[in-house]
Design goal:
Elements (H helix, E strand, L loop, with lengths): L1 E3 L2 E3 L4 E11 L4 H11 L3 E10 L2 E11 L3 H8 L7 E6 L10 E10 L4 H11 L3 E11 L6 E11 L5 H15 L1 E7 L1
Antiparallel strand pairs: 1-2, 3-5, 3-6, 4-5, 7-9, 7-10, 8-9
Helix pairs in contact: 3-4
Length: about 180
Amino acid sequence: MARRGGVVHYDPGMATLVLTVIGDDRAGLVNALADAVSAHGGNWERSQLAELAGKFAGIVLVSVPDERADELSAALQPLAGLLEVSVHPGASTDAAPADTQVQVDLIGNDHPGIVRDVSGVLARHGVSIDRLITETREAPMAGGLLFEAHLTAGVPVGQDLGALQADLERLATELVVDITVAAG
């Protein structure tokens, strides 16, 4: 797989695998996974990994020669003593041209349903979330918890970006949070 001009091009002799991983957090988990990938001729392309509530979880995109994909998948199963690994086939064709990318940032008092409400607005506009990072933290002055979200999403060609922004601003007023939307 090679990245040229912002578009990912897949090598026809390489299989793309998406690995989802979870396990009790401890030293050496990434190394064990990376060793297995490398030992089978694989290349670690991209990942999102994090510790949450004592668990280490994530998703990893790897490429591996077609003839070694099954071998790598089988080799990842013994990692269950350290990590539970699920292997999923990835896309095998060139990525479609990128939609308009938007960055949405939200901050406000934490309460249930914020992610549901924001993702509902995006879904109604046909917007696909590419990346979502959320966290809660102590509010420095007011007490309580603040909820913070940062997401990147693809807005389909022809979709009215102004209407999306207006709907998100309406939602921000209802939820009493600050939302900013920036097209990139």
